[in-house]
Amino acid sequence: MADAFSLRCYCFIDRMQAQYAAFVGTITQGDLPVEGMAALYVEMAPGNEVFRVVDIAVKATEARPGAQIVEREFGMFEVHSLNQAAVIEAGQVVLDRLGLKKEDRIKPEVVSTQVITRIDPYQSQLINRFRRGSMLVPGETLLVLECAPAAYINFACNEAEKKANIKVIHISSVGRFGRMWLSGSESEILTAKNAAEAALRGLEGIQG
Prior knowledge:
The chain has 6 helices and 8 strands. It is α+β, with helices and mostly antiparallel strands and 208 residues long. Strand 7 and strand 8 form a beta hairpin. Helix 2 packs across helix 3.
């Protein structure tokens, strides 16, 4: 690989939660995931490398591709299956072909978190204009969490849903930063925030 290559994100989701899987289904252009599937997200630079790497992953196992995205700087792909072993194997084949270990990925960083209580009706309407998940209802507490690299936000959101009774409003996982918007009661949102931050801190990697 060229010296410029960077494994920006490599994260395994063991079991997609119900809301998270439903949200991904609204934005994916590939194979549709369902609750309970395992998934792997890989982000890299330069972005064009993603085409070759996706081909390697889907030829190796039964894992199906849900996303293949190249934007100005980075490329990202996702594969999933009800068979966890197939997803793990697809990831290992990719790492082997790249001559890398998962620890060579960039360690995720929580860039910012905002907890907004008793969301204003006008603010909720503005957010509802771009959301692809649940409606944000006035009076709820809103969590906006931002991380880098961007694709790790998928892992953070899924882990938050495991631990807290929240609603997934929107997830943005492409570009330099990833963001998620979750809503619920103040106590549940604080639980979700802590779960997401702990999940990201627990991933090993190099400093970006």
